Structures are given as C-alpha cells and as structure tokens.
C-alpha cells in the first residue's frame, strides 16, 4: 500500500518504465492501482528502431507484473518521508 | 513479539535497519544494483536513489570456446522503483 501511495503522489509526472522484456517506455503517469498497473500518456519508446511496432502507440496500460523498474523524478520524491513511512509500515506488520 | 526493542527478530528487520544506507541488491536476469534504500514493502518492492546497475552479459561464443568471458554493462539512475518479484537478495552495507 505504501508504494501505491508513492505512485499516486507522482501522477502527472514523467516516468520511465522498464519492462521485463527490456522495453523502456517514457511517458506521463496518468494513473496507478493497487496491483501497480500503470497508465501512461504521451509515450516514447527508447530505441524505436528495435521496436517499430510501438511507434504508433501514444498511450498505454501496463500490467504491473511485467514491470522491472520505474525511474522516478528524484526532485518529486521526499526520501525522508519515505523512510519514516516505511518504518511505520514495518511496525504495523509486526503487530498484526 | 518484540523482545529487545531494536534487535533482529525477523528477516525483514535486516532490511529495515538498512534504510537510508547503501545496499547491494541481486536481481533476476544477471542484474545487480547498488543504491541507497529509501522504502520497501512486504513484496520487497524497493525505492532506491543514486543507483548503479550492473548487467552481466555472458559472451556465448567465447563461452563455447571454453573461455568464460563476461561482459559487464553499467548505468546510473537517480531514483528508481524496483518491483519485488525480480529481487533475489538484499544485502546491507558491509560494516568494516
């Protein structure tokens, strides 16, 4: 749930999603759900020559399970807040 | 449950104590990361900053000739979300 919240705060930011098949897609993060499925608008595929079939695609929905990395805009991530929230989350896990 | 306050009772405690420190992460697909850990959850989804990724690429042709040449590709990323299902291990910084 914590990571889901982080992604929600990053909506309308530009991110780069790297998939497990090595496809890298940069676009504006429009929405995210609890499975970390991601909807991207205005997308641009890295190395278009290798993925010509993606040239016409302008927006997409990415299933969460095929994601390897998401590169985030560092200036929009409060690392101190993240660490505190993670510790709080870990405490609650133990109590349960 | 909590016996000694800050001690290590369960495996995730080791990761919790590595928050805001540089950790080594081994991933599926012959990839390794080194970066500062800012957040994690029960799936081992991670958020890290100042990340260096190392990809090991075994040269199959020379491997057949009996000389195991491993090419290493490196790249850096400022802020990165890593999906937990790719994670093999997380290692805390070595305290020397």
UniProtKB/TrEMBL annotation, chain A:
Component of LSm protein complexes, which are involved in RNA processing and may function in a chaperone-like manner. PANTHER family: SNRNP CORE PROTEIN FAMILY MEMBER, U6 SNRNA-ASSOCIATED SM-LIKE PROTEIN LSM2. Keywords: mRNA processing, mRNA splicing, Nucleus, Ribonucleoprotein, RNA-binding, Spliceosome. Residues 2-76 form the Sm domain. InterPro entries: LSM_dom_sf, Sm, Sm_dom_euk/arc, U6_snRNA_Lsm2. GO terms for molecular function: RNA binding. One of its GO terms (cellular component) is U6 snRNP. One of its GO terms (biological process) is mRNA splicing, via spliceosome. This is LSM complex subunit LSm2. It is found in: Nucleus. Its main location: nucleus. Belongs to the snRNP Sm proteins family.
Automatic annotation (TrEMBL), chain B:
Keywords: mRNA processing, mRNA splicing, Nucleus, Ribonucleoprotein, RNA-binding, Spliceosome. GO terms for cellular component: spliceosomal complex; U4/U6 x U5 tri-snRNP complex; U6 snRNP. PROSITE patterns: SM (PS52002). One of its GO terms (molecular function) is RNA binding. It comes from the Eukaryota. Residues 10-96 form the Sm domain. GO terms for biological process: mRNA splicing, via spliceosome. It is found in: Nucleus. Coiled coil: none annotated. Gene3D superfamilies: 2.30.30.100. Its main location: nucleus. Transmembrane segments: none annotated. Belongs to the snRNP Sm proteins family. Binds specifically to the 3'-terminal U-tract of U6 snRNA. LSm subunits form a heteromer with a doughnut shape. This is LSM complex subunit LSM3. It comes from Crepidotus variabilis. The lineage of its organism: Eukaryota, Fungi, Dikarya, Basidiomycota, Agaricomycotina.
């Amino acid at each position: 749930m914590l990571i889901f919240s982080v992604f929600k705060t990053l909506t309308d930011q530009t991110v780069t999603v790297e998939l497990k098949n090595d496809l890298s897609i940069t676009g504006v993060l429009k929405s995210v759900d609890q499975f970390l499925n991601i909807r991207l608008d205005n997308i641009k595929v890295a190395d278009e020559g290798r993925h010509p079939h993606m040239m016409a695609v302008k927006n997409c929905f990415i299933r969460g399970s095929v994601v390897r990395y998401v590169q985030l805009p560092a200036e929009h991530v409060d690392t101190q807040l993240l660490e505190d929230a993670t510790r709080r989350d870990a405490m609650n896990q133990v109590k349960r | 449950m909590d016996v000694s306050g800050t001690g290590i009772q369960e495996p995730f405690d080791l990761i919790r104590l590595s928050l805001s420190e540089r950790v080594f992460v081994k991933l599926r697909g012959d990839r390794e990361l080194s970066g500062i850990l800012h957040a994690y959850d029960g799936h081992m989804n991670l958020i890290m900053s100042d990340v260096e990724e190392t990809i090991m690429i075994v040269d199959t042709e020379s491997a057949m000739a009996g000389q195991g040449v491993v090419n290493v590709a490196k790249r850096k990323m400022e802020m990165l979300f890593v999906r937990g299902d790719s994670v093999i291990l997380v290692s805390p910084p070595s305290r020397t």
